[in-house]
Design brief:
- The complex is a heterodimer of chains A (90) and B (352).
- In chain A, strand 4 and strand 5 form a beta hairpin.
- Chain A has a five-stranded antiparallel sheet, with helices on one face.
- Chain A is of the alpha+beta class and 90 residues long.
- Chain A contains two helices and five strands.
- Chain B is mainly α.
- Chain B has one domain.
- Chain B has a two-stranded antiparallel ribbon.
- The chains are: A alpha+beta (90), B mainly alpha (352).
- Chains A and B meet through helix 1 and strand 2 of A and helix 1, helix 8 and helix 9 of B.
Chain lengths: 90, 352
């Protein structure tokens, strides 16, 4: 059983900017298609460890990025992942 | 893992159905061709009078209704619209213009490649260049603006039109044009073609199969997820063509194709760029239409109008090649697409 956290963006532009900002940090992340269980739209999401999502969100907002949503997925092989939308508002 | 398996299965099914549809009567290397089929529908409705390409293609109806039914079933039917409608229509027109220069949408490009049509080998890098040009705009903030939620009636418009087309196809009233010769006269039996469209509609809605996204995601993020679907279409169609004797390698004498290298390349460059700016390849636009996106429906309308424009003014490519006027359209398309890209990105000051 594995948990991953995802951040989605309103447009691809913000996803691209998020990648270039985080590349300068020592944060582990990967840009991936938005998981099918989160949305049927075909955007790009940022996948990261759930321990770091708060820190990443802070960094991105500091850089004036627009973010759309925050999710935690439980992914188990071929089973349908379970999605939990995270409320990260302070 | 799970998503990847599904998209490979979806691609494989599309490749397999494409071979079956050709065996059952569709033009060669045209088991599925979204641009060609929309062009045929445009002709059947009398929007253009190219007598050899007029038919209400059941595959298109199936794709929209399949995606619609699936989206309703899984509660993903979400009527939206209002994101730069005029530009969406124009992008649809240009996407069709490029496709009718090359003679095929990106899906047919893959199928032509799987049939040994090496002209598609020229067009593929052209398509990649088009998508790459589009990503330059994306990196610089290109967006057509957020779409707004709309009433359900807006979302039902696309599926409703698909049903009307099906009624017209079955009833075949005198005012609908059906080709008596040429590619438009070649088609798999209605039930099979409709069933194939429905199945692909379901699969594409579930997996978001998109021939533009496949290339875009590799260029932007080195992500190969959508590409697996793209590759699966090719591999299965190639095996199918080899087994059924439809693999005929070469440049010349290919079905519904020409050998003008430059225009094959640039035609698909136009399609790639327009698809990135519109947010999806022709097939994806049909699926989004089924999900209730009015913006995608407008892009499809743009494609229909583009087909009429290209055929009424003798601009479309043909086995004889691309006319000088058609060549001008390619260049004009690239310029206008560049303007649309620039005008909606942050490359020009003043855009927020």
């Amino acid at each position: 059983m594995a948990y991953s956290c995802y951040i989605t963006f309103p447009t691809t532009f913000y996803a691209i900017r998020a990648e270039s900002i985080l590349k300068q940090e020592s944060t582990a992340f990967k840009m991936v298609p938005v998981p099918r269980t989160i949305s049927s739209s075909c955007g790009t999401a940022l996948r990261c460890s759930c321990d770091e999502i708060g820190k990443i969100k802070y960094t991105l907002l500091q850089n004036e990025l627009e973010l759309e949503g925050f999710y935690r997925l439980k992914e188990e092989g071929l089973k349908t992942p379970t999605v939990e939308e995270l409320d990260l508002n302070e | 893992m799970r998503d990847r398996l599904f998209i490979i299965i979806a691609g494989a099914v599309v490749g397999l159905l494409a071979v079956v549809l050709v065996l059952q009567g569709n033009p060669v290397n045209m088991g599925f061709c979204i641009a060609c089929f929309i062009r045929d529908i445009s002709g059947a409705l009398g929007l253009h009078r190219a007598g050899v390409v007029q038919y209400i293609r059941p595959e298109i109806i199936g794709l929209i209704i399949g995606a619609f039914a699936t989206a309703l079933f899984v509660k993903e039917f979400k009527p939206t619209g209002g994101s730069s409608p005029v530009l969406r229509f124009a992008l649809g027109m240009f996407m069709m213009a490029g496709a009718l220069i090359f003679l095929g949408c990106p899906l047919r490009l893959v199928l032509r490649l799987a049939g040994g049509d090496w002209n598609a080998l020229i067009a593929l890098p052209g398509y990649v260049v088009g998508v790459w040009l589009g990503t330059i705009f994306l990196k610089n903030g290109y967006t057509l603006g957020r779409s707004q939620e709309q009433s359900n009636v807006n979302g039902y418009a696309g599926p409703f039109i698909a049903v009307i087309l099906l009624i017209l196809l079955v009833a075949a009233p005198a005012f609908i044009f059906f080709s008596e010769e040429g590619p438009g006269a070649m088609g798999a039996p209605l039930v099979l073609a409709l069933g194939a469209g429905l199945l692909v509609g379901v699969l594409a809605q579930r997996t978001r199969l998109c021939t533009m996204g496949a290339i875009r995601d590799i260029i932007l993020f080195k992500d190969f997820h959508l590409f697996y679907g793209f590759a699966a279409i090719f591999v299965v169609a190639l095996i199918g063509n080899l087994l059924t004797g439809y693999f005929n390698p070469g440049f010349e004498g290919q079905p519904v194709a020409h050998i003008s290298t430059l225009w094959n390349f640039l035609g698909m460059t136009v399609v790639g760029l327009a698809a990135v700016l519109a947010g999806g390849c022709p097939m994806r636009q049909l699926i989004l239409t089924g999900e209730g996106q009015g913006d995608a429906l407008l892009t499809v309308f743009g494609m229909m109008a583009g087909a009429a424009f290209m055929h009424n003014f003798g601009l479309a490519g043909s086995p004889a090649g691309v006319s000088p006027a058609g060549q001008w359209i390619v260049l004009i398309s690239l310029i206008v697409l560049g303007i649309i890209g620039l005008g909606n990105s942050k490359l020009l000051s003043g855009n927020k």
